[in-house]
Batch of 4 targets.
Target 1
Amino acid sequence: MWHRTDLISTLLVAVLAFATRFIGLTAPTSSGTPIFDEKHYVPQAWDIAKAGTELNPGYGLVVHPPFAKEIISWGEQLFGYTPMGWRVMAALFGVGTVLMIMSLARRLSGSWQVATFAGIIAVFDGVLLVTAKFGMLDIFLTFFVVVAAWALVRDHQQVHNRLHEAWANGMLGNSPFGPRIGFRWWRFAAGVALGLALSVKWSGLYYMAFFGLATVFADLWLRRRYGVKRYVVGTLLRDIPAALASIVALPVALYFWSWRNWFGTETAVYRHAMHDGTVPRESLLHVLPDPLASFFYYHQTVLEFHSSLTTSGGHKHPWDSKPVEWLVAGRPILYYSNTDLQCFDGSTCRQMIYLFGTPIIWWLVIPILLWSLWCVLMRSDRRFVVPLIGFAAGYLPWLAAYDRQMYFFYAAPLIPFVIVALALILGQLAGHGKVVRWLLPSRAPWGTIAVYSYLGAVVAMFVYFSPILYGYTIPDSWYESLMWMENWR
């Protein structure tokens, strides 16, 4: 149930999220132009704002689906080709991501306190902050992935309640396969979110696979729990077809929908690849209608581009990082640098912005995952299943492609699930332990003191590292004091 405390805590976290993401939103530019990978996506979004689709392959990396760039273009239509125009939607989706992390934690725990823990940690994580302050793609992918997880949790809880009510009233029926569940709007909503995630980046496929399997096995577990005799066959017959429709067919349909302007525009990238000599005559694509043939050729070139970005193939980057490093935020990535500035006292200053995970959060990733596994396997605490699946979906596939050139921003969709698991752990601590009698103004158990001390430390560490998250002008000596590890440089 939603209570007044939920409303108050959500509003407070929303204000914090809005303030942290919009402060200095327009400041870091390259002489008024986009910085870092904004240089690819912002002009492409401007093409969409003006013509409906990306026009100029001369920009180079037109290698992601168009939906996130379409969202960026909404801001550009409102505020023009300005920093506010190309960043405002990322900032708003960043606020939305924080609130969805809260909602997921609230739905799993049933506790507004745990949801507030998750919201506070999400507000003050450096990765979620920086991804929400630039006109790039990852914050949109992260938002839709968290929405999909939240919707699937709601779906599972709804189906659980339906089956429990039917069982309690003796209405499960006589079929050995169990009852039909009916249309599942929450799973449909999850499919919409997964389709939009896929329309941002192809890595949305990973979440379709993991979340699809998760919802099917959840149905299998429910049918078995409520005494369905042939629960495996019942799941195969009555759950899997609908799951395939919602988690596979619907996202694929939405993916094609995201390309609607490409099909409807004559000047889109590779739109007439079949006629301009781009596609070899011997290609089997010539058997398809021209629009589809050009569409699939476009996708073929994108796949070849991504497949070629291997370390062994000579594609190296100074800020390349591998999945093992993501577990401890071991290799951040530099987004903006302005050095050799003159300080007021005559010393040298600089402005630096990193995609940088707040260490007190990211350095706990491995212990959090291990404790979550322990809770699932040894304590049968199913609340931790969702963050574990969400993390696995965004992490394990990259291990299979370990030779590929990778960057820390690939890890952005991982941290919401770490935060949810961390909030659940803090919820386990709060209210437990021996009461500290000397504590003023009121007594509290050691567990509660530990929780609020940790949250205070998260905020303090965020403030400490804020110069490299916001790009404040600071002396070189101050910058050096922030570089705790050589691998951060």
Target 2
Amino acid sequence: MQSGGVQSGAVGTEPTVLMGTIVNPAGLTLAKIVPQTRVPVFASAGLGASPTWHAFAADQVGIAFTDAIGVVGDQRIRIDQEAMRTIDTGLAWAPGEFFSQAGEPIPQCARGTLRRVVDRLAAAGLQALVGHEIEFVVTGPHGEREPSDLWAQYGAAGVLEHEAFVREVLSACESTGIGVEQFHPEYGHNQFELSVEPLDPVSAADQVVLTRIVLGRIARRHGLRISLSPKPFADGVGCGAHQHISLRRGEAPVFSDGSGAAGMTVDGEHAVAGVVDAMIELQGVLGGSVVSGLRMLPGQWAGAFACWGVENREAAVRLICSGPSTPRGANLEVKAIDGSANVYFATAAILGAALRGIDARMTLPPQVIVDPSTLTEAQRTDAGIRPLSADQSTVVDTMDSSPVLRDILGDPAVDALVAVRRYEVTHFPDHTAQTLADRFRLAWSV
């Protein structure tokens, strides 16, 4: 198998068991465990799994059956052994992919889909790096609200209140080979953000999965859990999962060192245009869960408008320009992503949209230099600024009918995504923000 995965890290004591994971269309992290002696089999022939793994729903009960996904048949999960990492004494981890019993890639497999999109970029002479921000809220062991009397937005009190947890997370990330860019308290009560270093797209998505596992394990040691839900508490702030994308053609960056808008090259302008143009259709992949609409509102820094701007935190696409304060260079931050998304599918959708913009030589719309919500509807229409939807039924229907997404991800993958998200909309149609937040608070936790 072509390798991806986290590219560095200490291995320590030989582990006794290995956990192989996949992320399904509902954004759930699913796992199989084998003793160390079975690792070679897990990596070659693979372990059996029902096609329904692609249809398990986020309510922890339902299965979103489709014509292509049912109780008949069997698939194989193979781990990428080159991406294997030791998490702790006795426990190793590796990302997995789905194959048929004959060894053919399964088109609903998210990691395999991302690798195919990366191959398309390479064929076009482009290479990508992706960095991720992981926002989460610390809760009690059953998802209950933790005390936050001393919490202040971005305040040092938050670090000191959870100092033992913070220190252990950083230590575990270092020993596991996770590159931490920064770790800080966030705006919401008991909310943190962990930003990890940019890697190639598949490795970066693998790193997110591994980081979530590390966070979950350490939280348990402290009698806590972490919530990655888009809206952990109805009266609190949302949690995003922003992605930072940079592209290069050969050795040359496309989002800087050019003569175009904000210093971009022609390729860079086309790439941004492609992402902005497709953003409404991408929304179901980036934030398609039944909880996502609670976050996708103006004033949440969630990127609730399909537009772009330099350092504009209310635009769905924020351009971070190159300069002395950005040693890694210019990049795009896509903000309309949350923790309920499948990270592999989300990255594939963004990169595919950027490549589509380059291939079609799409015209870059004018940048937005104000908070889009401060404009009138007529002003936004004149500027080509489109609001993302907070109605998840509309989001799912748009995803289902999107020729752009179907071209990027393929029909089987989109059909699986639509099925699990339509299941959520159908089974939780009239729930309040409170009941949705309560029901799904730990749905995407590990």
Target 3
Amino acid sequence: MNADHALEVCRDRVAHAAETRSAIRSIWNEYIGQVPRRFVLKPGRDDDHRVVAVETFERMPVRLSTLFGEWLYELRAALDGAVYFMAVRDSGQNPPPAERGLMFPTFDDAAKFDDKGHRGRLKALSDNSFALLRQVQPFNAQPDQHGNVLWWLDELARIDRHRYGHALASHADHIRVGVSSPLVMVESFLPPNPTGPLIVDEAEPVRIIEVKAPSEWDGVDIQQHLMIDDGWSSFVDVPEWRSRAAQLLRGLSLDKRMYACEIFVLDDIIEPLVTGTASLPQPERGEDGGS
């Protein structure tokens, strides 16, 4: 095994992850193009009142979450492949010692990374390689692990494994409904000071407002006095990733966040480790006893 071949395999896995990301984007755009959610009128508190809601008539394709799981697998497999190559290179053996325990480590606790048992599972790696892996661990991230790509890949894989149904969810980022007289809005069901986009419950209509209409009006009359032509738009994301990620990641769309992960995994982690260009920080002056 040589570095060129190991890099070729890792790069191809990341490239396939990018293709999977593109497929997620295409399926979502096709799904949204079918207008799967529409404004509807639901019964209100009495005969003169109606609730304006958005109802899902076509649920988000399950394939989206399946593909997201595949995207995670390819990136994690590329990282594991880099560690396997390092183990072969450092030990001079193929397969390397303790082969079954080889995987890219991800720890948010330094003590667990430094544990003798963990070091033993990676005994094929040299002390320098082990130190290089330690350097990129989430426990070194500032201000915390929520800004670390490796931690998120591990956390998202956990969510993907244990979530029944979708890891992904539709988020409404634009909700605006207007009324014209004599129709009157009597109540809004939306948060007055939303902290972020609304996660859409596809199983139940999303109640927007309640309106009061003249007693002789029917549904058509009410609809003619609602301004809803541009009242709703949405995007897809992983709720936990969007809400808990560090600001730099949270401000990106899902597609751009995934792309940033691909670039980081390949350019900042795998390539330096496999090519041997990764280096440990030099000790500051005075740490080695010098003046």
Target 4
Amino acid sequence: MIDTGVIAGVSVSHANASVEEIESAQTVDSETLVSDLISREGIEEAFAIQTCNRAEAYVAADDAAVARTAVEALSPDVREGAIVQFDHEESLRHLMRVAAGLESLVLGEDQILGQLQDAAEAAREVGGLSGGVLDDALSKAHQVGKRARAETAINEGSLSLGSAAVELATREIDLADASALVVGAGEMGLLAARALDASPVSRIVVANRTQRTAEHVAADLDTESAALRLDDLSAATERADVVIAATGAADPIVRDETVADAGETLCIDLGQPHDVVPDAGGADVAVRDIDDLETVTDEARERRSAAARAVEDMIDAEFDRLLEEFKRKRADDAVSAMYESAERTKQRELREAMAKLEANGELTDEQREVVAGLADALVGQLLAAPTKSLREAAAEDDWATIHTAMQLFDPEFDGPPPTPGSARSPDGGADAPDGVLERLSEE
């Protein structure tokens, strides 16, 4: 077994799928999914992440076809356009884009970085990640995500109407230890709930016509949260300091009677048409709508768009480095296996040759060195051309040649993992004979 592999991935996300389709793709929890994937023959690593916005899984295997088959088997029963499959290079780039926030509903949002890290730790706990190429890809993605936020303005200021609503609320009332109510659990309600989750509010209630969807949004929040049906909306407004409404209903949901006993409350209406009756509740209730958010969103949108272009350039550079590292590892594994195989043959033949020569009289140390040197020279010259070919194959993405070389020269390839003390270098490849690595570095 080697410490590199080919990655394949599958995704059902907000980019192509509805909330219901994403939910249908999450039939089991991430840990169970990873455990199932890693138990499949030929799969070396597995990782899965499930949030309100996405359900994604990745595997790494020595054989690209094995990896691809594993993720194809995960495709949920949703329409074809809702599912996206990634090959190795697409997986590497997509994971970096996800970590940087470029694939999020809110461009550059911070929550996804922690979610990726938590999902990676969960995968490690069940044996899904073991320091191989998928583990490396996730580590690189996390580094890119941190760099994107540290070196650009990708996460500064509000961008969506949901996050703009929360920013407007912070300008008008003190959100520290406040109670918030989100009316609607669709895309806009989800964004508002997540923006509130990053604010100082102490409790978030999500109300929706279908309580199950509200529960799904509430479960994704770190702040204390609860879910309820719209039938209980009046009671919820009594305890809310800020209400953000985003249902998309044809008629207003928050009316005079809804906030009759609410007291001092800020209502922010994101609905089109209106979700909140203008001037609902009288003087104690302040109502704001989308027009009030324009000054909050315009500047932030321009700033984040410029930052996104910088992050794209950052990902391009990191992707090229990661891909070159992957190719180098694959070539080095194949070359090491080839030299290890040649070394075993050389040592066997040397022992037999020395025994035959010494049958006619004991050899001097100088004679032994001449014979051993001849054997080393033959191995080096015979393997020089294949070494060059293997590295060229890796550079040209000719993984079939690499795979064939591993099968020919590595007796443990596609077999059980090497035991402690077996002939392996620290990075997982086989040790080349003395002097070989020096010669290779000169070629």
